[in-house]
Design goal:
This is Intracellular polyhydroxyalkanoate depolymerase. It comes from Azorhizobium caulinodans (strain ATCC 43989 / DSM 5975 / JCM 20966 / LMG 6465 / NBRC 14845 / NCIMB 13405 / ORS 571). With about 450 residues, the protein is of the alpha/beta class. The chain has 13 helices and 14 strands. A 9-stranded mixed β-sheet has the order 1-2-3-5-4-6-7-13-14, sandwiched between helices. Strand 6, helix 5 and strand 7 form a beta-alpha-beta unit. Helix 4 crosses helix 5. The longest helix is centred in the N-terminal third of the chain and has 28 residues. The chain is globular and about 75 Å long.
Length: about 450
Amino acid sequence: MAAIGEFVAPVRESEEGFSLQSSPLYFMYELGYAALNPSRAMADASRLLFKNPMNPMAHTTMGKSMAAAMELYERTTRRYGKPDWGLTETTVDGVRVPVHINPVWERPFCRLLHFERAFEHPPRRPQPRLVVVAPMSGHYATLLRGTVEAFLPSHDVYVTDWADAKTVPLTEGTFGLDDYVDYLISVFHRLGGDCHVLAVCQPAVPVLMAISRMEAEDDPYVPKSMILMGGPIDTREAPTAVNALAKDKGIDFFRRNVISQVPWPHSGAMRHVYPGFLQLTGFMSMNLDRHLKAHADLFRHLVAGDGDSAEKHREFYDEYLAVMDLDARFYLETVESVFITHALPTGQMLHRSMPVRTEAVRRCALMTVEGEKDDISGVGQTRAAHKLCPHLPDEKRAHYLQPGVGHYGVFNGSRFRSEIQPRIADFILTQEHQQASGQGNVTPFPRQSGI
């Protein structure tokens, strides 16, 4: 067996276990998208016509209404690509510092981006290295733009930039939960263990798995701390509607109804995936009335000439409507092990056929963060990680429940910037100080035979 963090030969796609019931969905979606191209182009041209100041109609209510209607049609029928990070500078010690985004590690399904700050003079304050593990759950890593922006003034930030599965050729094999854990371990090795890890939502489980496997092997490159935010460590605690759906339907339902094949001409053609457009349908349906109202408000803002409000709408939905496909193997394994069998909290989780022993965590400090109104990961689901790591001393653990915020507010927004981020930064600095002074030394966990 290969050492943890090493990559084995790609696993080829297999038709076994996938139903033909949902396979044509992606082809029909692409056909519909192509069929709408002419009308979308016409709508965009009409929008420009009715917004042209040389057109007398542009100054009438009817003309403004036509331009607004054409923009709404074009926006609701377009395909949204991966957004830009848009982070070109930050402020460190009161000085504006340019930021350059460079990939420093790469595999077929992920790149590690370094938000490198070009200092003219070394900063006065410590700048701990922070790896932000973005969720592989439909949206691009740019969804964490606000999270990264909040940490840039005080941390050396890295982010996992997951690839859209439809862009990964089938020759690269499939991508499962074991591969996710391998990727994380490889990233920690790349950084030499001199880092802290921030897992937002979905990656809380694989991050805890990766660090548990490293601790069990007494790996010298284990990160200094892990911060798990709104993650489904134990979905038996305060189960939400999302958890109940997975439990009630069972894994066969998802295998039959949401898995499809990527069509040509995408570079990942014939790969089995959970398509982004199906994920977006689920996202939108959870708060459909709110999204309909937001688009109705956009129409009124455009007619009234309220450019600021219209631009805020565009910025939000340009990000929200940009989705990516997930490899079917990773999606199904995650649903089954995290939401149906609860493999991690029950001690049944495996990585490369070896047990994941969370009780081995002794060196890597643990902080958990939850939102009081989180309707995705209920209160208590993330905090459960502390029960799974009983050998951590009190000075290496912390928990914070943020009042008045939902799932998104745990990692973004004003409450995150003013109340959550400072607590995380303080926890990281505390662990840096403890390890630098030798207070963080602990007895290694006994290694398991065969690892």
